[in-house]
Amino acid sequence: MLNFIYFNILTQKMKLLIVFLMAAGVLITASSCERIPGCTDIIANNYNEKATVDNGTCQFTGVVSFYLDQYGPNATVTVDSQTATTGTAYPDGLPNCGVGSGCATFTLPAGTHNYTAVSSLSSWSGTVNINANGCSLVPLSQKSGGVIFWTATGSGNIFVTINGVTDTVTTPFNVGYAPSCGNPGCATFYLPAGTYSYSAVSSVSGNLGTNTVIISPDGCNTVQF
């Protein structure tokens, strides 16, 4: 009789255990099948590692760098109401996209964007395609060049006028080689390609006369006093 009662109790416990395991299995299955909406693309900016169902909200960005491929005045570039300014020209090669010194660089949503750019000599407009996690280079060609006036000796300020614009040589540049366009202390001009007359006046020795200089579209000429 006792064996029968013991067996009956054991059977009831086994039934309860089975019911418990079945309930736990249902909960685990339900949890593993839970649908969590979100962005499931790992390269997206808003990737959600917990999402199980892509809901079309993935966001992608890329980079574009605008640069001057010839010497000339800086250009102000506008894309999607964002504005940046170019600096260093790259007449002999390409800048490092996204990190090049002197580039106007933007981070934008993937897709096609309109841009405009303007300098004192030129203007540009067009479209650029932004690839997800990519970087695009856009050259800005001005068909212009530069000329720099400099001196290697201290002779006071030299006022140089070319094409109606005056700039001043203020500091001797005496390191053994000619400076580059835009070097501080020199008089630098950016102009469309062509031949120009210039005049120069020293604050110490007076009128230095007039002469001509050729502006090439892909370089920076130097004139030493």
Q: So what's the oligomer here?
A: single chain
Mean pLDDT: 85
CATH class of the largest domain: Mainly Beta
| Helix percentage range | 10-25%
- Which structural class do you get from the secondary structure elements? mainly beta
CATH architecture of the largest domain: Sandwich
* Largest beta-sheet details: 4 strands, antiparallel
The 3D shape can be described as elongated
Helix count, per DSSP? Answer: 1
> Which sequence of strands runs across the widest sheet?
5-4-7-8
Please report the total strand number as a whole number. Answer: 16
**Can you tell me the residue ranges where pLDDT is under 50 for at least 5 consecutive residues?**
2-7
Instruction: Report the portion of residues in β strands.
Output: 35-45%
Number of domains: 2
Radius of gyration: 35 Å
| CATH fold naming of the largest domain | Immunoglobulin-like
Q: What is the chain-wise order of helices and strands?
A: HEEEEEEEEEEEEEEEE
